[in-house]
């Protein structure tokens, strides 16, 4: 999920001397022939760097993404909902681990990647810096946030880097349940009391625009898209994906009897697409910079969990070493 | 590598009996028993398997893509290893 093109500010690094024009051309020919690139294959240093950045941001997003929903596990309204939410949050942890694993095939260690997240150096999706205030937020996240994630991740299943593409296939299979359970929560609320329906509308009002921001900056300002497209890391542009998401989601809101918080939203008969209002990019960049409602809280929570788990990791390691020593003796 | 880092294991899963184990991905664990537990939690949450193998990633001996030509290309011109190389009249049946 969540590859927002957060790499806007990346500095142009010096060309790697190993990236000779012949090698680059041969690599591009493989990509153009739709061959998958595998871990030990030669690849341009820029390709490796782009993947490490994008994949680790993606993995971090899965991990931080557990926090807004984890907030509601103990307060889920029924045992059924609690079991579902637990399974979903566990899936998100799993997705993070699949992608960290795939990233490690590029020659980086998970511990280093996690350290970058905890220090605040690495980015994760802006969407997880918004609070989950009511139970309707859990429905909305499944419906919109996981819906946007699916839209984003389906083209990644055809990404040129084999391990990433394979991880995405598994993630996409699991994500569908996430979206459907969310929409089911919304259905139930919208068929419920007036107060429940108001709750659903309120959650939609708060999550709609941040969900649209999940697709990243507009193509007009996204510098890195062209190279990622040429390398077939990215297959469809941010704006195209965003449009597809709007087109499929608006009718779903209508079915619920909810109103999108966008006065400019209108169906364009000529193009067959919905036209929608201007996204508040100022808000997007502020959240990315760390000034969203929950940025500080999310990082503090991750750091606390990491610190409080340290003795467990060390104890497990010490036990393993002791057992190995005993076996050797 | 600091003391708290856990080594990497590769995970192979048999989806159902009758099929061979297939590489699924990797996981970190402090030891073999934990590697199996983690592989089970991570890769078989939806009945994806009936049997799991884990092996330390460092124990795998892999061919080098740089050697691909010398390893695999010699097979390319030995088309007589394929049944379609041989012309058998249509009248001859069951072959």
Quick take:
The complex is a heterodimer of chains A (329) and B (95). Chain A has 13 helices and 2 strands.
Blueprint (SSEs and pairs):
The complex is a heterodimer of chains A (329) and B (95).
Chain A: H1 21-32, H2 45-64, H3 66-70, H4 79-104, H5 110-119, H6 135-156, H7 162-190, H8 194-213, H9 225-230, H10 238-256, E1 266-268, E2 273-275, H11 281-291, H12 295-308, H13 310-328
Antiparallel strand pairs in A: 1-2
Helix pairs in contact in A: 2-4, 4-7, 6-7, 6-8, 6-10
Chain B: E1 8-14, E2 22-28, H1 32-43, E3 51-56, H2 68-72
Antiparallel strand pairs in B: 1-2, 1-3
- Count every helix of chain A, treating DSSP H or I runs of 4 or more residues as helices: 13
Q: What is the number of helical segments of chain B per DSSP (H or I, 4+ residues)?
A: 2
Low-confidence stretches of chain B: none
Computed CA radius of gyration of chain A, to the nearest angstrom: 21 Å
Describe the main β-sheet of chain B briefly. Answer: 3 strands, antiparallel
Beta strand count of chain B = 3
In the sheet with the most strands of chain B, the strands line up as: 2-1-3
Judged by helices, strands and strand pairing, the structural class of chain B is alpha+beta
User: What integer is the average pLDDT of chain A?
Assistant: 94
Secondary structure category of chain A? mainly alpha
Unreliable spans of chain A are none
Query: Largest sheet of chain A, described in full?
Result: 2 strands, antiparallel
Mean pLDDT of chain B: 92
Oligomer: heterodimer
The topology string of helices and strands of chain B comes to: EEHEH
Distance between the termini of chain B: 60 Å
What form of chain B results from the Cα inertia axes? elongated
Beta content of chain B comes to 15-25%
């Amino acid at each position: 999920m969540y590859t927002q093109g957060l790499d806007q500010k990346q500095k142009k690094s010096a060309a790697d001397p190993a990236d000779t024009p012949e090698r680059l051309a041969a690599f591009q020919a493989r990509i153009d022939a739709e061959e998958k690139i595998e871990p030990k294959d030669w690849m341009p240093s820029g390709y490796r760097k782009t993947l490490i950045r994008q994949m680790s941001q993606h993995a971090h997003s899965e991990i931080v993404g557990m926090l807004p929903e984890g907030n509601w596990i103990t307060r889920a309204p029924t045992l059924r909902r609690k079991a579902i939410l637990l399974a979903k949050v566990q899936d998100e942890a799993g997705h993070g681990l699949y992608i960290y694993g795939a990233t490690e095939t590029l020659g980086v260690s998970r511990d280093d990647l996690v350290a970058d997240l905890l220090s605040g150096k690495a980015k994760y999706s802006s969407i997880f810096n918004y609070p989950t205030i009511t139970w309707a937020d859990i429905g909305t996240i499944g419906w919109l946030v996981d819906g946007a994630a699916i839209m984003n991740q389906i083209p990644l299943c055809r990404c040129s880097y084999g391990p990433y593409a394979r991880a995405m296939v598994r993630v996409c299979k699991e994500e569908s349940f996430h979206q459907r359970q969310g929409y089911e929560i919304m259905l139930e609320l919208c068929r419920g009391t007036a107060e429940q329906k108001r709750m659903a509308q309120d959650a939609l009002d708060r999550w709609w625009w941040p969900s649209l921001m999940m697709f990243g900056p507009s193509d007009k300002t996204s510098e890195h898209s062209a190279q990622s497209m040429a390398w077939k890391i990215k297959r469809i542009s941010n704006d195209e994906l965003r449009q597809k998401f709007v087109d499929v989601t608006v009718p779903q809101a209508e079915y619920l009897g909810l109103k999108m918080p966008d006065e400019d939203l209108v169906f364009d008969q000529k193009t067959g697409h919905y036209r929608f209002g201007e996204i508040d990019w100022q808000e997007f960049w502020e959240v990315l910079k760390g000034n969203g409602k929950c940025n500080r809280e999310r990082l503090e929570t991750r750091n606390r969990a990491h610190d409080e788990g340290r003795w467990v990791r060390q104890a497990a390691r010490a036990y393993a070493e002791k057992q190995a020593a005993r076996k050797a003796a | 590598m600091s003391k708290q880092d856990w080594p990497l294991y590769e995970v192979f899963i048999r989806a159902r009996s009758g099929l061979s184990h297939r590489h699924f991905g990797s996981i970190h664990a402090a030891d073999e028993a934990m590697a199996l537990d983690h592989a089970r939690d991570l890769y078989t949450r939806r009945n994806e398997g009936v049997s799991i193998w884990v092996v330390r990633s460092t124990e795998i001996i892999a061919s080098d893509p740089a050697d691909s030509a010398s390893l695999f290309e010699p097979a390319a011109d030995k088309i007589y290893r394929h049944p379609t190389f041989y012309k058998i009249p249509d009248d001859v049946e069951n072959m």
